[in-house]
Amino acid sequence: MSIGKGILEIKNLSKSFIVDNNPLQVLNDINITIPPGNFVSIIGSSGCGKTTLLRIVLGLETNYEGDALIDGEQIEGPGINRGIVFQDHRLLPWLTVGENVAFGLDGKSRKETEVIVDEHLKLVGLNGFKSAYPCQLSGGMAQRAAIARALANKPEILLLDEPLGSLDAMTRMHMQKELERIWLFEKITMILVTHDVEEAIYLGDKVVIMSSRPGVIKKIIDIPFTRPRDRSSYEFMQIKSEILEEFHLGVEHPFIYSI
Amino acid sequence: MSKSLLKRFEWKDKLLALIVPLLVLVAWQSAVSLQLFSEMILVPPLTVMNTLVDLARTGDLTNNIISSLKRVLSGFLLGASTGFFLGLLMGLSSLLDRFVGPLIKACKQVPQFALMPLIILWFGIDEVSKVVFISIGAFFPMVFNTYQGVSGVPKKYRELARVFNYKSFRYLTKVILPGALPSIITGVRHSLGLSWMFVVGAELFGSESGVGYMMVWARQLFQIDIVMAGLFVIGIIGFTMNIILQIIEKRVLRWRVSFDGRMA
Ligand SMILES: Nc1ncnc2c1ncn2[C@@H]1O[C@H](COP(=O)(O)OP(=O)(O)OP(=O)(O)O)[C@@H](O)[C@H]1O
Ligand SMILES: [Mg+2]
Description:
The complex is a heterodimer.
Chain A: E1 8-19, E2 22-34, E3 39-44, H1 50-58, E4 65-70, E5 73-74, E6 82-85, H2 97-101, H3 110-123, H4 139-152, E7 157-161, H5 169-186, E8 189-193, H6 197-203, E9 206-211, E10 216-222, H7 234-246
Parallel strand pairs in A: 3-8, 3-9, 6-7, 7-8
Antiparallel strand pairs in A: 1-2, 1-4, 4-5, 9-10
Helix pairs in contact in A: 3-4, 6-7
Chain B: H1 2-33, H2 45-58, H3 60-92, H4 94-109, H5 116-123, H6 127-151, H7 155-163, H8 168-204, H9 211-220, H10 224-252
Helix pairs in contact in B: 2-10, 3-4, 3-6, 3-8, 3-9, 5-6, 6-8, 8-9, 8-10, 9-10
The structure holds adenosine-5'-triphosphate and magnesium ion.
């Protein structure tokens, strides 16, 4: 893949928060380089700093040690080259679904906006809900609307913080396919945080495994399979159990009890 | 089906709300009929109604209502807009909030009717002092509710605006003001309600027109029926204002209620 714009380099990155006047180390010495157009999945237990890492890349957390660079420049604040689907969907309750999807579109004509909104609502399967308010959506629909909003803006780097968390299994698989299709088509970088190991492998060029207290990168696993991937193939299952092993959930070497 | 059910409930509520006033009217009329009180002191409701009709026919009532409403409008616009802008600035700038917030809170503790003598001293006894007095009443609910609404816009939405590079005017009109709107509308409602109370108060301190004036003048001539008619008019107008604002509120804040009435 040709190297376009938006190479993300994270070097010796550490971040701590002050909690009750004591520093709480949340990220410790994170190192990873993500070339443009890569798909990186991040998995790790709750509270290991995945959201914090995304917020640093997004530019919402600026008080960190080490380097977080995009095309060699330190990230100092949000920019429209980066987009996010927040863990909570964050649709503005006073805007309709259509208006929410158009929220990031600036300087476009009404007609252009309309076309982009329709296209993206269709993409996430919310065609009929353009003029509904967020409080009229289910959790999964709200998440899909948030994905549409992030995509409509055409970021170079799209951060996805458990974007499919509240979808049912079927819609979830469908949305994974859609994400892959969009990614292949738009050739943007996607960084996906997920708790679903299968999802991480299905979508990622790499799977980053983090562990907590403080959050560190434990392992980065390359996924070499061609796309679209077969979840039930032997290799897929093998990588899956390798990753589960990292969380001490492996099933390959069960204890053998003898009396 | 569920919608018609809802409608019926609403009607039932409205009918229920009428029961107590009707009972009061019946008790009132019977108290006079049984001669528990002198008719001079407690005028029977029917007489009050007649007086009201008479007042309306001569045009006195309409003129007085119009001049009261004019004062309310000027006082409300002056006080509420000042309160709105100050509340907005305080909500946006924590520095300003720390400077003037405590002062405003302290001022609120002073009963505003106690200011009337001072206002008369400063602004004279004519229209200006009345409008100023009303605007003080209108100011406080507006400044507090606007401040609360603006500073209460959740951080998650502010962050979202930053992510999408929203700045100044766009940020204010697309994120902050809509987010603060429920609170701002509450402010408008209280502000207008207090303006209406304050106008009657202001007119009691001497004036040549207005509903309050009509009542003072009638009391001096011992025309208690007119005083009571005045009370009735004040109540009805205040009530109507509130209803109108509630209807506006429902329309403007339609996004807050979903199919099953959950709040967002
Ligand atoms: N603003 C903050 N102030 C203080 N501590 C914070 C703040 N934000 C996050 N933390 C702490 O940092 C740690 C990591 O939080 P983070 O949200 O990044 O976890 P996560 O990996 O995304 O977890 P989850 O999978 O549950 O979403 C947690 O212990 C959390 O309490
Ligand atoms: Mg998180």
